[in-house]
């Protein structure tokens, strides 16, 4: 069952505030639910009361250490906004201040909160002061991973000492019955007392690992006073990673064209902001900006986008392409079939809707390379299946991905645009001044 369907079954208020506790896939479930609601036109705030992975590690845009007004502005349009503050652990973020949270949450139509830590274990019994639940919470979802069942308790359970207090020191193998007892005594009973009136449920994640999932669910629920729902790990057909190349020297332009104002905004910013919106809407899994220019990298960081410096720009576009590939590959989900989509930063009139339509038609095509074109002439952006990464990494000098594309024309989907201006790169200042 999809998570948004579970919330509907439990009863969804006008603005749900859902705290995720337990173990076995909290972050992935939060992002799945956030994406589904964003696709329904909702403005969704994702945050934490404990720690969660930094958005860029998750392949997402984030608003970290940002003032409330910036987070509120990001929540003016449908999409997913991940917000928090910096942590002493480099790869993690912490929650928002009370004032910032209140202002941001007021703008959102749904709030999803990671309220518990589990150190990657599939099952947890909470310790003192865990989980950390906000008072405005409407639902508390307690997760457990099906991968823990049938395994030794000491291998799968976080806070093992608390589990043994419930089950006794002789408990060895985690069964459906013992899992139900742990979740009821560890989570449900104390949470009902501390947060009366909230909707509580248990989610048994990774149901696809079970031979008889409904039978297991029934056994767990027999030990509990709240409903138990089955949930499968989200299956992604494709992982789309966008890479914006913004490191050129603009030799023919006469100055740095990427910083040149076009209709009151630096040229590069037109494309970067459109790609950020595409990612925010869940149509791509990550966005990386590659540049040699500090101004561009700082702006990417300010907007919560992963910026990567290219110290070898003199080697040509191949260096930026490969640095971007390496950065995007670190963000990929190992369970996805990945595609890498390259954009150039001197196409300010490329429309967001055109990119979205290109992606939709490319997926339907079944091809492994996609390219936007005008009258059969290839242009940018270009997208490649992960199987072409070795060839892309062998490119040298000022040679881009089109060399690989031309070797595999039988695998190429051409998306024809009606407006050649969308694909035109501005190599000469006179063009813009016309």
UniProtKB/TrEMBL annotation:
It comes from the Bacteria. InterPro entries: MobA-like_NTP_Trfase (IPR025877), Nucleotide-diphossugar_trans (IPR029044), YqeC (IPR017587). Residues 243-410 form the MobA-like NTP transferase domain. One of its GO terms (molecular function) is nucleotidyltransferase activity. This is Selenium-dependent hydroxylase accessory protein YqeC. The gene is yqeC.
């Amino acid at each position: 069952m999809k998570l948004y369907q579970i919330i509907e079954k439990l009863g969804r208020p006008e603005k749900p505030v859902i705290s995720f506790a337990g173990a076995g896939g909290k972050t992935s479930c939060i992002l799945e639910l956030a994406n589904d609601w964003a696709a329904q036109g909702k403005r969704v705030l994702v945050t934490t009361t404990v720690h969660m992975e930094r958005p860029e590690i998750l392949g997402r845009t984030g608003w970290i250490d940002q003032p409330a007004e910036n987070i509120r502005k990001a929540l003016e349009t449908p999409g997913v906004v991940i917000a928090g503050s910096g942590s002493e652990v480099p790869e993690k973020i912490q929650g928002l201040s009370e004032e910032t949270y209140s202002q941001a949450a007021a703008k959102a139509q749904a709030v999803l909160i990671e309220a518990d830590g589990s150190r990657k274990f599939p099952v947890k019994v909470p310790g003192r002061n865990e989980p950390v639940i906000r008072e405005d919470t409407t639902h508390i979802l307690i997760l457990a991973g099906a991968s823990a069942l049938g395994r030794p308790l000491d291998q799968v359970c976080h806070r093992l000492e608390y589990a043994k207090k419930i089950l006794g020191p002789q408990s060895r193998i985690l069964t459906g019955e013992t899992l139900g007892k742990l979740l009821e005594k560890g989570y449900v009973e104390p949470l009902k007392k501390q947060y009366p009136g909230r909707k509580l449920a248990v989610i048994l994640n990774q149901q696809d690992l079970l031979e008889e999932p409904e039978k297991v669910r029934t056994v767990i629920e027999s030990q509990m006073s709240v409903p138990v729902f089955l949930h499968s790990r989200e299956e992604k057909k494709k992982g789309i990673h966008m890479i914006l190349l913004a490191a050129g020297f603009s030799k023919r332009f006469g100055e740095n064209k990427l910083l040149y104002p076009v209709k009151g905004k630096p040229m590069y910013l037109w494309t970067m902001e459109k790609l950020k919106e595409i990612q925010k809407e869940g149509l791509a899994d990550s966005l990386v900006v590659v540049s040699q220019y500090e101004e561009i990298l700082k702006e990417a960081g300010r907007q919560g986008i992963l910026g990567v410096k290219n110290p070898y720009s003199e080697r040509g576009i191949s260096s930026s392409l490969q640095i971007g590939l390496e950065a995007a590959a670190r963000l990929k989900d190992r369970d996805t079939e990945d595609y890498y989509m390259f954009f150039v930063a001197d196409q300010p009139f490329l429309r967001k809707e055109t990119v979205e339509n290109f992606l939709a038609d490319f997926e339907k095509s079944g091809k492994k390379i996609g390219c936007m074109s005008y009258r059969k002439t290839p242009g940018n952006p270009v997208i490649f299946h992960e199987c072409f990464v070795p060839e892309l990494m062998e490119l040298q000098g000022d040679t881009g991905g089109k060399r690989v594309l031309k070797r595999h024309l039988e695998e190429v989907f051409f998306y024809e645009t009606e407006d050649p201006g969308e694909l035109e790169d501005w190599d000469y200042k006179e063009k813009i001044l016309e």
